[in-house]
């Protein structure tokens, strides 16, 4: 079990580095991104494990909250805006499969008529779309609360 | 000897020039910062603190394609308004970081206005490095993503290959200034057709996970995050604009993916 958690953290870190590279962060930010992503993604993995069985939205919110705290602490120390290491670290948790499935469902529900077929695809569209929206919302709210809560501190640190 | 009126006019002319220079700098700065993919919260914070340090007050309206910026003196006697186009740049976290550092330097007095303008030009002029290593990193990232969803080594290898091909295509097309929507459709088509090879040749035990995760490198994650961040900060117009943009790109991704699956005679909804 511990091995699974460590491998989840490891692969999440690689995913964060790679996806962050698309938006070219500073060289220093890569390392912080990887650390934050590894901690956050593995925390979400633990929260969603059979023992805890938390909902994906709730566990994403909690994980993002912890990542936000880490990013604020790191940004105070490294003197850079918290979101430049926080947003790339959040990328591996973006619900990509929900997003494209939702659009696929929408396209299919337009192409199919009849009660049963249409309802099936419309259900796929609504289910995946709602999950996608609420996962991202939970993620951003969770990650932003610490940035707001420590706002005064971050401003003071960046003014020094 | 100058008369009092003349002296007064000269000083007011120089105040005007400084106000103008300030407003021009702040509007260029805002345009570049927002265009590089910063949140509205970051933009307001940086611009407000710089204006305060320069001894002015600033009011701004952030619209999807323009920024409306009024800089006025503390006593509101003089004011200048600029409307700047938001620069159309790719998302660049390095530019956001360096522009934020610049605002900090200006506030702390380490650079003056003309120094800040020089440094701003240098930051904006720095070209994005289209490194081959980025293509490899994206490929590895998507392969790890496949592993996170439970894919085996065969699936990871297939995802690595299809992502390398897809991201290379995206890079080449973007450099030729192809429309982003077309780029997304073509790249997701290519990646999904290549990843369908795993199902076709029966590679490993999880070919469907390889197929489902093969296009995930295209999901516009940063625009989605920015959009929701603006929503929380109360910048609803900017939020809606960014959300629409991200949704259109996701729709294009789905179109290419559905097309690729149709060609390979597979269904999207039986994958995961």
Q: What do these coordinates show?
A:
The complex is a heterodimer of chains A (160) and B (272). With 160 residues, chain A is mainly α. Chain A has one domain. Helix content of chain A is 83%, strand content 0%. Chain A has 7 helices and no strands. Chain A has helices at residues 2-22, 27-47, 56-78, 83-90, 96-111, 115-149, 151-159. In chain A, helix 2 (27-47) packs antiparallel against helix 3 (56-78), helix 3 (56-78) packs parallel to helix 6 (115-149) and helix 5 runs antiparallel to helix 6 (115-149). The longest helix of chain A is centred in the last third of the chain and has 35 residues, at 115-149. Chain A starts with a helix and ends with a helix. In chain A, 52% of the residues are buried. By secondary structure, chain B is mainly alpha-helical. Chain B has 2 domains: 4-125, no CATH class; 132-270, no CATH class. Chain B is built from 10 helices and 3 strands; from the N terminus they run ααβββαααααααα. Chain B has a 3-stranded antiparallel β-sheet, covered by helices on one side. In chain B, strand 2 and strand 3 form a beta hairpin. In chain B, helix 1 packs parallel to helix 4, helix 5 packs across helix 8 (207-213) and helix 6 (153-175) packs parallel to helix 8. Chain B is elongated and about 80 Å long. The model of chain B has no long low-confidence stretch (mean pLDDT 89). The chains are: A mainly alpha (160), B mainly alpha (272).
